Amino acid sequence: MSKMDDLRALREARYERHVARGAQPAPPRRPVQPQAAEPERPTAATTDSSADELCGHRNMSGRTCTREKGHAAKSHRYS
Description:
With 79 residues, the chain is an all-alpha fold. The protein has a domain at 46-71. The chain has two helices and no strands. The termini are far apart.
């Protein structure tokens, strides 16, 4: 057999398993329990007296910019 024949046979076998699995009923799912809400922890930006003077931009990981509000720099400084 050639490599392509082997690949075709594997693909057809996988398809047959998929079709056979679809005929069986799905197992019952466990109910999702709600998570308890955590109390908010104060961050450095909210406890700082100059919090209203900061840029406040947030990056994807949740860090906030520590530059002054309306800064001219193109980049942010996160902490």
